[in-house]
Amino acid sequence: MRLVLLASCLGFTIAAPARLPNIVYIMSDEIAYYELGHMGNPYLKTPRIDGMVKDGIRFTHAFAAAPVCAPLRCNLMTGKHAGHASVRANDGGTPLRADEATIASLLKEKGYATGGFGKWGAGGRDSTGVPEKHGFDIFFGYYDQVHAHSFYPPYLVRNSEEVKLPGNEGGRTGQSYSHYAIMEEGLRFIRSNKDKPFFCYFPITPPHGMYDIPGGDPAWKQYQNEDWIKDEKIPQDVKNYAAMVTMVDNNVGQVLDLLEELKLTNNTIVFFTGDNGGQDRFRNGDHPRGFFSPNKDPRSGVEFRGGKGSLYEGGLRIPFLVQWPGRIRGGQVRDLMFAQYDILATLTELAGARTPKDTDGISILPTLLGEEAAGHKQATHPPFYWEFGNMQAVRLNNWKGVHIRNKQSWELYNLKEDISETTNLAIKHPEVIARMNKIIAESHEPARPGTYTTRERHERDRRAKWGTSRPQPSPRVASMNRIKGKNLVPFEKMKLVGFSSENQSNNRKAIFAIDGRPDTVWHSSWSDGLSKHPHELVIDLGATHRVAGFRYLARQDGGWNGAFAKTEFYVGNSPTDFGSPAAKVTFTKDRKVQSAGCGKPVRGRYVKVRVLSEVNGEAWGSAADIGVIGKPAK
Asked: Residue 115 gets which letter from DSSP?
C-alpha cells in the first residue's frame, strides 16, 4: 500500500515539541514473545522491560516481516514486505541495493543524527548495502550475522573499518566482551547528540549467538537465589541464556536512565522488540517446546506452531512495546496487527519525513498517539504477505494461509479459533484460497539484491566468528578413539597447505582434520554454501617421507554427516602435482580408526586426500582426524 502523508498533520494536530522527537529502536535478537516477565515466564527476569508495559503500550499482534535475521532487517529498514525486498536469503551477506532508501536515510533528510549499534545483516563490507551508505552517520558492531555469533571476536566494525577488541581470538572466550563495547558506543552516541534530534537503532545480538556472558555481569545477581540456577543437571548454556535476557533488560534500563539524566525522556519515543519468532532451544523431555517455552503461553498452555525459520505463528509473533511519557498513555494493551515493514511509514510520519512510493507499510502512529493527536484514523492494514524458502503466507483478518511452494499446496487456518494452526480448512474454503492466490501473484516479484565490489573483507568477517580460536575440549574426549601407532607422522609436524572447503560458521575448519584432537571436526562447506564431492585436503608432512599408509577417524560426536566412503590418497613432491593414487579405499560407518595401505611405500613430502563419496550418500565430507604412516626418507 502506498500511503500519502501530510506533514501539516504532524505540525498542527500533535502538540508539537520544541524540536523533532528523538527515536530509540531496540531490537533484541531472537528474544521471544513469551520470554519476558510480564508474559508470565517463570524463569526469565525482565523488570525494566516489564516497566515499559506499565508506562507505555504493548502490542499482541506484532509480526516479524520474515522469520529469520537478514531478510527482516531489510524489511524493517526499507519498509518493504518479503515479496518486494532485495534481501530474502538468510546468508548474512546479501546486500541492499545502492538506490534503496532506509529509515535512517529518510530521517537524515530531516536533520536527524543517525546511529546503529549491533548487527546490521543487510550487506557486508564492500557491498552496496553497508549502513553508512544507507543513511547512518555511524554503525558500530557486526555487518555480517555469522561474525555476530561470537561475543569475543578479534574485532568489530565501525563504518566498514575494523576496531580491534584486545585479548580476543574469536570463539567463546576472550578478554573483551563485544556487547559491552556496542552498548557503550550507543550510549555515547545518545549523549553526544542530546542537543539535536537523533535516531538510535540498537539491533543488539543477545540473547542470540553463542550463549556467553561474563560471570561478573550484574544480570547474575537477579538469579543468585534461584534453585534452578544452582541445579548442576541444567546445562550452563541454559543459565547463560537467562542471564543474557536479563542483561538485555538492564541495557533497556541503561538507555531509559540516560534519557532521564539528559532530560530527554519526554521528547523521546522508545521501542523495544524482538526480531523474529522464538526458537525452541534447549528442548528435552520435560520441556518439549524448549526450556523457556518461547512459543507457549505459560499461563494457558496454548502454543504457537513452529518457530524461527517458519511462517507459522511461532516464527512471526514478536514482542513489541513502545513508551513516550506524555504522548503515549501508559498501561495499554492493543491488538492492532502490523509488521516490521510498517515501522518506516510510522517513523517518517512522526518526523514529517517523506515516505517513498515503493514501500508497503502503513503508519501505526494513530494507534500509538491516539487518532486525535495523529490527526487521522488508523488505516486498515492491507493483506499481510510473507515468503521465505519453500513457504509463502498470507493473512486476511483472522484467516492465515500457508502455501508450500514445491507441493503447490495450501493450508488455511482460522486464527481466531485456532491460534495453534492445527486444523487445515483449505478444502472447505476455496474462495479464501482463490483470493490468497491472487494476493501472492500480486505481491511476489523476483528479488533484485545489491552487489559487491569484492567479498574479501566480508569473508574475513565471517571467519572472525571463530578467528584463530579452537573449540574447548569436549568432556567426552577421554573416551573417544584416537589415531595412534608405529611410524605415525606426528600431527604437530604436519601442516595444511590446501583444502577444497570448510564450514566456518560452526567452526568446522579444515585444520582440525590434522590436529590430533578427536573432539574437533573438519566439515566441508554446507551452511556457508553447499560444496559437493570431491572434497580435498593437501597436507605437508614437513619433510620427505616413505609413506606406507593412512589412517582415518570419523567424527566422534554421534553423527555420520560427511563420514568418508570412497576415498583416494596421493603422495607427491609438490603440493600441486600428484600422479596416480597411492591408495584407494571405501571406508564404512565405524567410529574406530580405519586404515588404507599403499601396498608398497611411496616417497614424497605432500599428501592429497580426495573424498569421492559419503557413507549416507550425501554431498558432505568430514573427519575427526587423518593420519599418515611413514618414515622420514634418508
From this structure: E
